[in-house]
Design a protein that fits this description.
The structure holds two protein chains of two kinds.
Chain A (H helix, E strand, L loop, with lengths): L4 H22 L2 H17 L10 H37 L4 H15 L2 H11 L5 H8 L3 H22 L1 H4 L3 H7 L5
Chain B lengths: L1 H8 L1 H4 L4 H21 L5 H9 L2 H5 L14
Chain lengths: 182, 74
């Protein structure tokens, strides 16, 4: 359909959540805004293929998600290196409560496999239904559910490990997770 | 991830109402806080301009969306 003012308004209204999705996925504000820009350009170029009355945010999220994934493949090694160094610097910083807690959360989120991270963000933060999230990721609803569950349990284990002092873990758990770190 | 999986299977970690449940609720909270913080930033100018700029012909067709069709220009 043509780009009406109404669609333009809907595109504008989608920008804040697209940015939030992009930042949550990539962990990098500049890169996230580039992703959003590319998403909007693609959406505008392909606006004819958008079905009026269908879910515009879901369509936009699908475009952004696919762009991120193709970009991610290229950057994977670089990101993994950065992640390792980042994790090391975190452990030597003094505890600054809220900020540190957020950094730990962010670092843990970045350690999730991509499939799980995107599923968790779409369902747990963007507020999409399992059905919409499945459509965005191009997989079955059951697959999304299991990815979300695995994401939650892996994240909680990661935070349990990182936030060991907050939660006072059992010594045997400390022993299990101690040593070479991982 | 082997060690992490051991933690995930630890009964103290998995127990009902145990640490896992407490951390789960923090995760939900932190995830939404991170996300909503960005949502609240609204639409940066660069995106508002981008969307506005890419559609100049529609300004003229503002009140005639239903009748004015694309005249073949791209």
């Amino acid at each position: 359909m043509p780009l009406t003012n109404s669609i333009r308004d809907d595109l504008l209204a989608s920008v804040p959540s697209l940015r939030a999705f992009a930042i949550s996925l990539s962990g990098n504000g500049d890169r996230a805004d580039d992703l959003v820009q590319e998403t909007l350009l693609r959406a505008l170029a392909n606006i004819d293929s958008f079905q009026p009355g269908s879910n515009l945010p879901a369509w936009l999220f699908t475009i952004l998600r696919n762009l991120f994934r193709s970009d991610y493949r290229k950057r994977r090694r670089e990101v993994e290196d950065a992640d390792g160094n980042y994790a090391k610097t975190l452990k030597t910083q003094p505890a600054q409560n809220a900020h540190l807690e957020f950094e730990e959360f962010r670092a843990a989120l970045d350690k999730l496999p991509q499939d799980q991270r995107e599923a968790l963000i779409l369902v747990g933060a963007s507020g999409f239904s399992y059905e919409d999230a499945a459509a965005i990721c191009g997989c079955a609803v059951g697959t999304i559910k299991s990815r979300v569950n695995r994401a939650r349990s892996k994240l909680s284990a990661l935070l349990y490990v990182d936030g060991a002092d907050d939660f006072g873990p059992d010594e045997t758990v400390r022993a299990v997770i101690g040593g070479s770190g991982g | 991830m082997g060690k992490l999986e051991q933690v995930m299977k630890d009964p103290k970690f998995q127990g009902k109402g145990g640490l896992n449940a407490e951390i789960q609720s923090r995760i939900g909270h932190q995830l939404r806080a991170m996300y909503d913080d960005v949502v609240r930033q609204g639409v940066p100018d660069r995106f508002a301009e981008l969307i506005r700029k890419l559609d100049p012909p529609q300004e003229a067709a503002n009140t005639a969306d239903q009748t004015a069709k694309n005249d073949g220009r791209d």
